[in-house]
């Protein structure tokens, strides 16, 4: 991935997720009268709000879900979009940050565990392209795996970006209480990233180095029907 020039952690920028396309990760988990619907995808926050209801109706029709799901799906999407928009226009700090991204996913019969480093200053990064490359390299044929990986990456990048907004807000409060003091309150994400910078240097990217293979080796397993059924039963019990 291309690394952009680093910005000082003392120079805030306006909130955005560090990817080329500023898409919002949406996750749905809705249960009505014993019937459960789960899905995850990305949404363009610039699309008109009317598209949410259209999407909900089309989803219910295509999957033959009860009509009551339309309202619940639409409300869940709108709530998550409203949360994202509450951060728009706010300052956030990035600085020189390389953070770990972890995958622990089951998509149909495919189980994936992996971790790699991601440069928060690379606003040209593309989780979908990374996911396609991952699936191609690991010979994964299930077409649902790639989008699930991309959403999982975007969710973690989104969470880190919101933490950076909190860090910028806390810094402003600290500076007001300490007039002229140059003090930055580290966020959880900032602390992790600085440790990684010491370990891997500032030029690390999502490309694994040979010496890191033992730590950052992806694991992909194909589960049997029995194993999937057992996992789904366990997930159902945990959800209750």
The strand count comes to 7
The low-confidence parts are 1-9, 180-205
* Largest sheet descriptor: 3 strands, antiparallel
The chain-level mean pLDDT equals 82
Alpha plus pi helix count:
6
**Structural class determined from secondary elements:** alpha+beta
Report on the structure:
- The longest helix is centred in the last third of the chain and has 33 residues, at 145-177.
- The chain is built from 6 helices and 7 strands.
- The protein is globular and about 55 Å long.
- A hairpin with a 2-residue loop joins strand 2 (24-32) and strand 3.
- The termini are far apart.
- It has 240 residues and is of the alpha+beta class.
- The strands form 3 sheets. Strands 5-6-7 form a 3-stranded antiparallel sheet.
- The protein has helices at residues 50-63, 68-85, 127-137, 145-177, 188-200, 225-239, and strands at residues 13-14, 24-32, 35-43, 91-92, 98-107, 110-119, 219-222.
- 22% of the residues are buried.
- Helix 1 (50-63) packs antiparallel against helix 2 (68-85) and helix 3 (127-137) packs across helix 4 (145-177).
Give the structure's gist in a few sentences:
The chain is an alpha+beta fold. It contains six helices and seven strands; from the N terminus they run βββααβββαααβα.
């Amino acid at each position: 991935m291309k690394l952009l020039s680093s910005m000082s952690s003392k120079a805030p920028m306006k909130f955005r997720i560090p990817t080329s396309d500023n898409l919002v990760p949406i996750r749905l988990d809705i249960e009505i009268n014993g019937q459960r619907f789960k899905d995850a995808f990305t949404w363009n926050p610039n699309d008109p709000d009317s598209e949410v209801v259209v999407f909900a109706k089309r989803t219910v029709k295509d999957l033959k879900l009860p009509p009551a799901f339309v309202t619940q799906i639409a409300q869940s999407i709108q709530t998550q979009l409203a949360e994202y928009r509450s951060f728009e226009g706010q300052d956030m700090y990035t600085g020189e940050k390389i953070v770990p991204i972890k995958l622990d996913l089951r998509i149909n019969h495919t189980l994936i565990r992996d971790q790699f480093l991601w440069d928060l200053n690379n606003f040209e990064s593309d989780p979908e392209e990374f996911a396609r490359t991952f699936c191609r390299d690991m010979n994964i044929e299930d077409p649902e795996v790639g989008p699930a990986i991309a959403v999982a990456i975007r969710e973690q990048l989104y969470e880190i970006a919101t933490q950076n907004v909190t860090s910028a807000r806390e810094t402003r409060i600290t500076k007001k209480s300490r007039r002229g003091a140059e003090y930055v309150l580290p966020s959880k994400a900032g602390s992790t990233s600085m440790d990684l910078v010491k370990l891997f240097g500032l030029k690390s990217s999502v490309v694994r180095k040979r010496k890191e293979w033992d730590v950052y080796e992806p694991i992909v397993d194909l589960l049997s029907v029995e194993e999937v059924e057992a996992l789904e039963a366990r997930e159902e019990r945990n959800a209750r």
